[in-house]
Amino acid sequence: MSSTQNTFPSREAHRVWLSTQAALPQGFRVGTTRFEFLPNEAPKPSKMTLTLIALDKPTPDFAAVFTKNAFPGAPVIVGRSRLAEPALGSIIINNKISNVCAPGGVAASEAVCSATAALLGLAPTEVLPCSTGVIGWSLPVEAMLPALPAVKTALAAGSVLPAAEGIVTTDLYPKIRAASLGGGRIVGIAKGAGMIEPNLATMLVYVLTDLAVPRAELRAMLSRVSGETFNRISVDSDTSTSDTVVLVSSGLVPCPDLAAFEAALRGVCADLAEDVVRNGEGIRHVLRVRVSAAPDTTIACALGKAIVNAPLFKCAMAGNDPNVGRLVQAIGKYVGATGLDLDLSKLRARIGGQEIFAEGAFRLNYEKEAALVAHLKAAELYTSKPGADGTFAPPVDFPPHERCVEIEVELGTGSAEATVFGGDLTHEYVSENADYRS
């Protein structure tokens, strides 16, 4: 999605780059605190981070989009109601527990909002709650409330990095993207690694700007941009109960051009969406699938999702095995299952620029197979190795590069196109999710 591809030789180099992106827009402060608690549903202590994003002054100009999962978390239920409120003054975020379908979940979220509001001199309805983590466990309100004064004390302007670090769960590293426009800034942070197929992923995104964009325009823009970015990624095809994307303007800098603002917002969100996939649980290859010459954008996007969610194809990518039959199988499965009247005789498919299928037949030879293997290996983020205990874990906590496995599918039946990002399916993904609660 980004026009540039960064490379990072070390964690330190990546952190230096993050710091260049992290300057907060005017009118915002962030802070975090971490504490230990005993979950009601588990016998051993856990650690939770509270992250607070606070405006210097409440703003009417805020927008949010939420998960389409039919079992939304309590913070999503509360968050949807906040959209009707006249102003927003802060966002309080906790990790470790997502507060989904837990007894008294909405009341628990509201209690945290009320306590946060009292500390900041806000109305409770001016605080937006967000939670991420284990589904089904109840929010430890009795442990969270005493920690709130510490997170208020930690509030500082300057860098969004503490918040980017505070919201993570299984993420390997924080994610920050930024853009500048007309003397103002747009800065976004994201959390998300697994349970990712946004309709909206367990994905949380916060985009902050000091550029003055009115409420109605801000909400229309976020809806359009989310559909073109966050809703075109998938790590594992599972739609989280907690997906939330929030866009807030402090309104302190005049916006010179609303169209230019939307373009900059789209760039920030597109890069964050790709970052979420690259930092997906166990991801060793990011798959960029461009479907072109499609009858409409909906079909192009759905076909791209079908490819990146195909388990056998994902496994082949994990093994650097250009088993292109699995790609064509996934395409045929989608078209057949949906009953689309598509003339597949015009379909062409390429991986890494190598044409592998055209006019109803594979186009393969030894040289292409070697080139495909080289392309997959060049896109690999790290090499899979089991640890001493036999389990697999990613050996890096930074993205060494931003390369992708490039997959192109040209349908030849229209002029619409869409680009979808996904990942492979690895030992590390299975290990992470087999032991997620432990």
Q: Can you walk through the features of this model?
A:
The protein is an alpha+beta fold and 438 residues long. It contains 13 helices and 16 strands. It has two domains: 11-278, L-amino peptidase D-ALA esterase/amidase; 286-434, ArgJ beta chain, C-terminal domain (Ubiquitin-like (UB roll), Roll), CATH 3.10.20.340. The protein has a seven-stranded mixed beta sheet. A five-stranded mixed beta sheet has the order 3-10-8-7-6, sandwiched between helices. It has a four-stranded mixed beta sheet with strand order 1-2-4-5. The radius of gyration is 22 Å and the shape is globular. The protein starts with 10 loop residues before the first helix and ends with a helix.
Please write out the topology.
Elements: H1 11-21, E1 28-37, E2 46-59, E3 62-66, H2 74-82, E4 88-94, H3 105-120, E5 127-131, H4 141-144, H5 148-153, H6 161-166, E6 175-181, E7 184-191, E8 204-212, H7 215-228, E9 233-234, E10 244-254, H8 258-278, E11 286-294, H9 297-308, H10 311-318, H11 324-338, E12 348-351, E13 354-358, E14 361-362, H12 366-379, E15 405-410, E16 416-423, H13 427-434
Parallel strand pairs: 4-5, 8-10, 9-16, 11-15
Antiparallel strand pairs: 1-2, 2-4, 3-10, 6-7, 7-8, 11-16, 12-13, 12-15, 13-14
Helix pairs in contact: 2-3, 7-8, 9-11
